[in-house]
Write a structure and sequence with these properties.
Elements lengths: L2 H15 L4 H8 L3 H9 L6 H11 L11 H9 L9 H25 L2
Helix pairs in contact: 2-3, 4-6
């Protein structure tokens, strides 16, 4: 499968499985909902800035969007925060918290020598 298609599939899967709408993602990154639709349909390339913001919100690493491995995806989804109808400020708070958790996990791995 082409890398672009893997990214598209993962973006859509994480969004849907975590209970976010396209509108939620659009509010969070400050764009029109149609851009999220374009990302998921493959008619627009996902910018690195937006990919980083999505990874923060979903609590995953940016390169997790590039993985076509359902067991890794399922593990990420099992530990992710789920949202329904949150406001932009709430989404930003969730993303900041997720970023802290990711950094903490990285520090623990480094300390253990993983």
């Amino acid at each position: 499968m082409e890398l672009k298609q893997i990214m598209i599939n993962n973006l859509k899967a994480y969004r849907q499985n975590l209970g976010y709408t396209q509108e939620d993602l659009a509010k969070y990154i400050g764009v029109d909902r149609s851009l999220i639709s374009h990302y998921e349909n493959g008619t627009r390339e996902i910018t690195l800035i937006h990919l980083n913001k999505f990874s923060d919100l979903f609590g995953i690493e940016t390169d997790d969007f590039l993985v076509n491995n359902s067991s890794e995806k399922n593990a990420n989804l099992a530990f992710a925060f789920r949202s329904h109808g949150m406001e932009k400020e709430d989404l930003s708070s969730v993303a900041e918290f997720q970023k802290i958790v990711k950094n903490y996990i990285k520090i623990i791995k480094l300390a253990k020598g993983d």
